[in-house]
Fold:
Amino acid sequence: MSIKIELKRKALHLTGLTVPAVYLLLGKAYTLTFIGIAFALFVILEPFRVIEEWRDKIKEKLDLYVSPEVVEKIELLENHINDITREHERNRVAAHIYFAAASFIIVYFFPENVAIGAIALATLGDALAAIIGKTFGRHRFSNGKSVEGSLAYFLTGIVILTPLVGILPALIGSLAGTIAEFYNLPPDDNFSNQLAVALAVYLFHL
Structure:
């Protein structure tokens, strides 16, 4: 995947920062509602992303009821989504579903500062790790990850978490997130990354 496509992918990924933003502005109850609605929409729309025949039927219907310009814009959006979707993601549950599920669990069960820090780090840290690793990564591991990318994640974690939970939990949480991001822990790194950070920070912040 080229750096241009990676940037487009991570720009979309960064919309996950809306979760800690909503939490800060509106509180826990509104945040859970926000995530819950997003999760429901993602699940409803997921079959149309995966099953090509369903998408074709929808486009046939659209041709009857909307202008060609609208159909063209929809197809353009579909092409952009296909561009930023990795090959192994095309026929499996989408990353944003895992992200929303983990965010809901974390906001519901963990304190506000831990939840905000974990979600923000999993979002921003992952994006910076990918971009810096792709651009400046010179020391590669066997799985394709780089020292530079992992270091970017770790340092991002310290910057985000320290004001929220203190230096020691920030170090532990950043390390946990870096490991989860490095190994792409199942079921999906967008799920395991958030939980790894939240659990590590919570345990050492008690």
Notes: The CA atoms of residues 62 and 70 lie 9 Å apart. The two ends are 41 Å apart (CA to CA).
